């Protein structure tokens, strides 16, 4: 059986140790325990080392079974199946002015790992309203622990309440959301507070920060024996759990939690509960103290609660169990995505045209040929004919590179130049002959700079299936820069004014291959006009379609093609 290999994106690959990096380390251990391989990468595909520093090595996306994205700043930039882990409650992203970009980032992924009690899933459906998916039967993932990291519960000789957090509002200069409660807890001897020093400045029960090393946190929890799990407003509203519940279970501790829906539903009476009543911190404090006193007076019963909670973690939420379920469900989820997003009519024919109207095949032309042959070869729809349109003088040289190609590639040669290397035939005229010879429903005019994802053409074809009135379908695109980084270019529908860039084709920021055009509108290019069309051929057709024919352009909403710098 083939070993499963998947990647996890590190959003900040600068050697920063944070909660995300700790979760990645936990997943690495769990992946190894189930016989899978996990590698950490940047969204551009650079491998990230064990110190969470970006290296210069790039992963071959074709070797990955899937990619996991854990943050709303991540966007799909690799030609691999991407899962977005839905961990952030809606109001976290909604509070930012960049929300529209974060929503696009989330929607760029193929599928989603959903664990909450409804709030985050409903928000996701809103984001995907223009490109709906079947989310029933989705896999899930929580920021839990590997089974080998678990510490078994023990009788508590000196129970101490453990709380660890960013105290985020105070950390950024505001007022802590649980200010009154923390002030009361700070007066107790059996309370330990952990987190960034700045966030807990002035607290007598502050015991320092805990390294993000995958083990120190749960060891400290095990020593204390009791964990306070408090939800933020955003988590409570969405029915999303704080990671403290998994940390408490992994450390073998008793959990005191507010009445978070997800925790109550999944952990039941293995957890002790307090009211989510921030307006009355004294009442919350009294309930916490009552639970602590109960734990001290009933050590055997408290131990049973800790054991029961840990058993729930091991049976339902261990990272080994969760990753195994994701892997087992992966092929079914892929089929669901294909049904929702890919073209269902396999008979429709696409004509892709690449112009190599040069006097000689040099290294640059070889690179272009290799790249475009690969682009078409990997497409998930096979009914594509790639026509390499070249000068008669270089036909034999071009033929060497298409021999044995894994796609339907043909050569159409013309006398583009006279004996003195003067151009005597335009691209427009050559295209006219090609289009009349080869049957097709769609055309794609290539400029040689394309980097296509394998689902690029089928997703554009699906646009026409969803909206037969459209004449032009197009995707978002990115710039594949010289330094290997990838930068989004188009992330929204094209303004009509953008099409005027046909007058300055060398400055047009997008790639020609992002457009799929119905053959029905090819006639808009008159024979007189085709005689003078060169690099601006695709842009001229787009302008005629939109401004003269009032053709409808339809945006796919996803980024499936890039432009090589």
How would you explain this protein's 3D organization?
The radius of gyration is 29 Å and the shape is elongated. It has helices spanning about 20-35, 90-95, 100-105, 120-125, 170, 180-185, 215-225, 235-240, 245-250, 260-265, 280-295, 300-315, 320-340, 365-375, 395-400, 425-435, 455-465, 525-530, 535-550; strands at about 5-10, 35-40, 45-50, 55-60, 65-70, 80-85, 110-115, 160-165, 190-195, 225-230, 255-260, 270-275, 350-355, 385-390, 410-415, 440-445, 450, 470-480, 485-490, 515-520, 555-565. It has 19 helices and 21 strands. Strands 13, 14, 15, 16, 17, 18, 19, 20 and 21 form a nine-stranded mixed β-sheet that branches. Helix 12 runs parallel beside helix 13. By secondary structure, it is of the alpha/beta class.
Topology, pairings included?
Blueprint (H helix, E strand, L loop, with lengths): L4 E5 L9 H15 L3 E5 L4 E3 L5 E5 L7 E4 L12 E5 L3 H5 L4 H9 L3 E4 L4 H9 L32 E5 L3 H4 L7 H7 L5 E4 L21 H9 E5 L3 H6 L5 H7 L3 E5 L2 H7 L4 E3 L6 H17 L1 H19 L1 H23 L8 E7 L6 H15 L6 E8 L3 H8 L5 E7 L12 H11 L4 E5 L3 E3 L3 H11 L5 E9 L5 E5 L24 E4 L8 H4 L6 H12 L4 E12 L1
Parallel strand pairs: 1-2, 1-5, 5-6, 6-7, 8-9, 8-10, 10-11, 11-12, 13-14, 13-16, 14-15, 18-21
Antiparallel strand pairs: 3-4, 16-20, 17-21, 18-19, 18-20
Helix pairs in contact: 6-11, 9-12, 12-13
